[in-house]
Amino acid sequence: MPLYANSTGERYNQEDIAAYFVFWIFTVLKGVLAEIVRDRAAIVERDKGVAFLSATRSIYHLTDLFYLCVNIPRQASRAFVHCAFSSDYASQAITPQPIAAAQLADLEIIKLMQRGKGLAASDAPESAIELTTRGHEIAILGYSRNLPSTGAADAEGPPASAELKTLGDYFHSHMLRRNGIDTSDALVISARELDCLRWVAAGKSAWEASVILGISERTVRFHLNSAREKLNCTTTTQAVAKVVAQQLIAI
To answer: Residue 3, SS3?
Structure first.
């Protein structure tokens, strides 16, 4: 049975990975807002996940995803929004004052993000990425990879961290817009546009990409055209070169 090391050096076999991250999510991260928001009555929780995270988990064959954002300024009032979402549950809080950085230092997801900074994608079952922010908020995407077993030569490998960061940035921009923050000037490639560019980069035609993605060829061409416009490129080849150069997709 192959073994994998997590970010603290502990060893796990393939069967342990999913159980480990489920434990991590539901015992450590589910109550993360309760650790940093003093007024427990300000926290609203629900046992229903976020569809975007659930879809991303399925598409990229991940065990789970977790989004944490602290100190989103609410434009309609002098308040701050804090979110902790996964594909299985969601919690949110609104406070009149921002949460101090010192209150975040001991959070497990903060430690996980700091351990992963400057490191290449590894075989660790869990990791966290710091997302692109527009103010003083802190946004993190935590995730668990499904690792292929030894001997499965044709098994799909884990997604590149850069691809997950792009998706995380897309979702974070959505959360900012929900709270009245204009993100129209941010260059954000959607998950589907990135999928289409990835398959074109792999040498697939628009028709072949449509079969792989389960959408029409016309829809693939629509997404490619949208990506070209966002990237300010005149051809799909230029768009592919740009996202590869920016490490948004791996080839």
So the answer is: strand
Q: Which residue has the higher pLDDT, 174 or 124?
A: 174
C-alpha span between 114 and 130 (Å, rounded): 9
**pLDDT tens track for 96-145:** 999 988 888 888 778 777 776 655 444 456 778 889 888 889 999 988 77
Largest CA-CA distance found in the chain, in angstroms, rounded: 56
Let me know the angle formed at the C-alpha of 94 by 93 and 95, rounded to the nearest 5 degrees: 120
Bridge-based pairing state of the strands 90-95 and 43-46: antiparallel
pTM of the model: 0.67
- The beta strand positions in the chain, using DSSP E, are 3-5, 11-13, 43-46, 62-74, 79-86, 90-95, 126-130, 138-145
Scanning 29-86, the segments in alpha helix (DSSP H) are: 32-36, 51-59
Amino acid in the structure at residue 244 = V
Strands ordered across the beta sheet of 126-130: 43-46, 90-95, 79-86, 62-74, 138-145, 126-130
Q: How many residues are recorded in the chain?
A: 251
